[in-house]
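Question: Hello, beginner here. Any chance you could explain the protein record under this note? Any guidance would be welcome.
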Amino acid sequence: MPFQENTLLIFVFNEANSGFRSGATLKPSAWTHIVEGLEKTIEKRLNQKQLKNGWDYMKRQYQTWTKLTNTTGYGYNSVTRIINWPDERWEEYLKANIL
């Protein structure tokens, strides 16, 4: 995306916390507010589909990161910002989830 992801996160969270969601999704009016707010902030107009695609991408990244860091016996080193897995474990994970 052509801007920092945290900018989108701030707008999405603000809309969700302001009652502009329906269940687990945002209402169409929320996306309108987000589009308009981002246009003012980044001085570029992005449409709802572009923003939703960015949101979905970040959500998948977060879900993957959470799964990796919560795997029993291994974890995330917050100092080095590296997931501490031996090569064999990475190979198992990649075979099961990527390849």
About this structure: Residues 5-97 form one domain. Residues 16 and 23 are 10 Å apart (CA to CA). The beta strands are 21-22, 25-26, 75-77, 82-84. The chain has a mean pLDDT of 84.
